[in-house]
Amino acid sequence: MKKLVAVKKAIDKIVETLQETYKDQPVDIGLSHAVAPEVGDTVLEEIKARLNTQSTVKTEIGAVIGTHVGPGTVAVMVTPTKA
Is residue 59 classed as helix, strand or coil in its secondary structure? Predict the structure, then answer.
């Protein structure tokens, strides 16, 4: 249960930081996960609910990077949408 609370707090902090950075600006989101599709979906849904998200891409982290970061890792990439 403690781990779930920590994950939720981390997700909230990531999304809060993105909100502060991008405000209402249209953005495109990329998300990669290491054997954690459920966590990736949760993060993506939180971002989509709180940012002006125009498009999303979700991928799985490959074996080489995954070996270094470990299972459960989620990476978020954000870029302003080009007009």
Answer: strand
